[in-house]
Design brief:
Blueprint lengths: L6 H10 L4 E7 L6 H10 L5 E4 L10 H12 L4 H8 L8 E4 L2 H7 L1 H10 L4 E3 L9 H10 L2 E2 L2 E2 L5 H10 L4 E4 L13 H11 L6 E4 L5 H10 L2 E4 L1 H8 L4 H21 L1
Parallel strand pairs: 1-2, 1-9, 2-3, 3-4, 4-5, 6-7, 7-8, 8-9
Length: 265
């Protein structure tokens, strides 16, 4: 059974020790070895792991993660099977699921929240649930002990940014650019601006995701932020046939680059 590791205390402790935070994203149910991928990226230096629960209409995700979701669904992945399989992964770092509100609603707010905790999953990201409609899930999540990570976009006004940071748990997810997930040749300028804006209004860990694709881009984003979330670049390697070893190699490269920041600083 997976040990439940709380997100925010773990990330704060790592940050306070001078470490830049790294959260890889893995699509749940993608291949029979997906749980081994989760364990491998944890061993390679992840500070937490975001596991995507595939959904048929992933509005935030670009072509790479959409393709991964479609493959996982075709292979029989379901929300309950993914959460159950995570309970067998001894990752040693906090686990977070990322899914869409339809999955949460259909599963039942309280039932879904309790299921996460029972299977060793500490947090959830529900990107299409608007902040103003967050209440029912927030109550169920808080009651069960699920840390719900909220997203802030480059277009989020300053007053709303303060509210999102206050209500987020685990970390605050700064969306690096306006657009869907996917690899980019360069890091958007909005990523650093987003990090600065968030760091100005919260002491919670601030991580930048969407458009962070390479070790150099991770370093650039983490110059202002506490760390990064990397999804599409990792998932592409899995779609191309790379298994746990390829995933670990890539995450290890990201980890080395981020650790180099502390060494040079």
């Amino acid at each position: 059974m997976t040990e439940l590791i709380r997100i925010e205390p773990a990330l704060r402790a790592a940050r306070d020790a001078g470490r830049k935070l790294l959260v890889p994203y893995v699509t749940g149910g993608l291949g029979s070895d997906w749980c081994e991928v989760v364990a491998a990226v944890a061993a390679a230096g992840a500070d937490a792991i975001e596991v995507g629960i595939p959904f048929s209409d992933p509005v935030m995700d670009g072509p790479t993660i959409q393709e991964a979701s479609m493959r996982a669904l075709a292979q029989g992945a379901t929300p309950s099977s993914i959460v159950a399989e995570l309970s067998e992964v001894d990752a040693g770092v906090p686990l977070v699921v990322m899914t869409y509100y339809n999955v949460v609603y259909r599963g039942g707010h309280r039932r879904f929240a309790r299921s996460l905790i029972e299977h060793g999953v500490a947090g959830a990201i529900v990107p299409d649930l608007p902040y103003d409609e967050f209440g029912e899930w927030a109550r169920a999540a808080d009651d069960a002990g699920v840390e719900t990570i909220l997203l802030a976009a480059p277009t989020t006004p300053d007053d709303r940014l303060v509210e999102i940071c206050a209500r987020s748990r685990g970390w605050v997810y700064g969306v690096g650019l306006m657009g869907v997930t996917g690899e980019r040749v360069t890091l958007a300028e909005s990523a650093s601006t987003m990090a600065k804006r968030l760091k100005a209004v919260t002491d919670r860990p601030v991580l930048i995701g969407v458009g962070v694709s390479t070790p150099d881009q991770a370093v650039e984003a983490a110059t202002e932020a506490d760390g990064v979330i990397v999804g599409s670049a990792l998932v592409r390697r899995l779609l191309e046939g790379g298994g746990p070893e390829a995933a670990a190699t890539f995450v290890g490269e990201l980890r080395s680059a981020l650790d180099g920041m502390a060494a040079s600083g």
